[in-house]
Amino acid sequence: MASSTHRRRKLAFAALLLAYFVYFTYDGLRVHFAIDDIGNIAHYYRGGPLSLGISQFTLWRGDYRPMGGLFYLPILAFAGLNPEPYQAALLLILLVNVYLVYRFARLLGSGELAAGLAALVACYHAGVHNLYYNAACVYDVLCCFFYLAAFVYYLRIRQSGRVPAVRQIAVFLALYVCALNSKEMAVTLPPMLLVYEWIYHRHGAPGVAGCVTWIRGPARTAWCAAVPTALDVYGKLFGPDALANAEGYHPVFVLRRVRDFQRLSLGDLLFGWSTGWGGILLLWAVLAYVACRRDRPMLRFLWWFMVLTPLPIEFLIGRSQACLYIPLIGWAIFGSVMVADLAGALAGVLEREPFGRRLGRSGIVALLVAVAIFFWARQNRQYKQTYAKPAMLSLGHESWDVIQQFRAVNPRVRPGSKVAFLDDPFHSWDMLSLAELWFRDRTLDIHVERHGPLTPDELAREDYIFTFDNGKLVQLK
């Protein structure tokens, strides 16, 4: 009977999570493509399926986040330039991640209440709002999915008292490589494995002998993961398409970058909280005190999780919102454990009161948690209305207008033709990407005037010529 009641409660809370997720994210299905989406899809389309498949294994080349191509291209094949299926797929992965957050928290040692609250935070956090409506953030979503999947797989093995065997290490590494191919944030997974092993499973003889035994046994999966990590870092720094060569991805190791990142990230994670060095150091000191003061290995692990997982972006410019998805998981579980503990402590006091005796301890805890959820949801709703809604409404109108023009005119060209666009409404080179994705014919030779003007003789040799007149697509030839 008790187990049946417990199952019903879990199903009811799962239904609450689903309703909460849908309530806050369903309108993301109506958002247009961001400019980055068009460029991302075109990047993988130009390379072709074979190149995309090979790039999943050649970490040392520094190919740009090849796992994203496995998200974009299959949808492109059946949906073309309709943004809804891309957004739906993004939301589906985010929903799976909610479950992985719950499992991650439980395997770390949290109670069901704290794990459920952490999953609720992962359902929607308005401080990282672009994560839920901008398909260009799929790299963060995929990275978190494979990161948590690998960690949960590993923790399940360790919780059973076993050390991963060779086959299990291979499965873990496969998931880890997928995370690396999704985004650079994944490089923190091996260090976090070492932190986990050091906090949860540090046994054996003291001194050097004990360390050697630990390295060869519990820590060996992390050392195996160091190999793809090194290859990936080499590719990002020195590969043919090294990401670090781009200005926005070039780290500068100065304290000012750390301060700026802390202010941005804490402002997003804590809903606008902003302070200088004094407030930043005080906050981290309080969190460290809470983590170390209590005999809770999970809190010590989560403190390190919150410190280490942002390191790949901490020295870059302006990284915020969706970039904080993986660190957010640590904050969500840490905060949820604190809320659950506080609710339990208050219930212990209030149950002595007359109304408390009628409700009982569990009833008081449920009431306190319901109040906390109400205020959390209200804060998210207010933040979404103020910041997320305007961003959603303004996203992608420029590219969407052009896509609508293509749909209205529905231009058709013969395979192997020369196609020229004399003018376009963009202020960048995105017209070429959009044209390639509309026609999806690799035999075409497409030229955009913005890349450089054609001579009269070259124009005469073009088979098809298009331009935009007052925002309208017009076929001239």
How is the biggest beta sheet arranged?
A: 4 strands, mixed
Measured by DSSP, the beta-strand proportion falls in: under 5%
Mean pLDDT: 89
- What share of residues is helical? 55-70%
The parts where pLDDT drops under 50 for at least 5 residues are none
Largest beta sheet: what is the strand line-up?
A: 2-1-3-4
Structural class: mainly alpha
N-to-C CA distance: 77 Å
User: Which word captures the global form?
Assistant: globular
Number of domains: 2
Plain-language structure description:
The chain has 2 domains: 2-394, no CATH class; 397-475. The mean pLDDT is 89. The chain has a 4-stranded mixed β-sheet with strand order 2-1-3-4, with helices on one face. A hairpin with a 2-residue loop joins strand 3 and strand 4. The longest helix is centred in the C-terminal third of the chain and has 41 residues, at 354-394. It is mainly alpha-helical and 477 residues long. Helix 1 runs parallel beside helix 5, helix 2 (35-55) packs across helix 18 (430-439) and helix 15 (325-350) packs antiparallel against helix 16. The chain starts with a helix and ends with a strand. The radius of gyration is 26 Å and the shape is globular. 38% of the residues are buried. It has helices at residues 2-25, 35-55, 67-79, 83-108, 112-123, 138-159, 166-180, 189-200, 207-216, 220-238, 255-269, 277-293, 297-308, 311-314, 325-350, 354-394, 397-409, 430-439, 456-461, and strands at residues 418-421, 445-448, 464-469, 472-475.
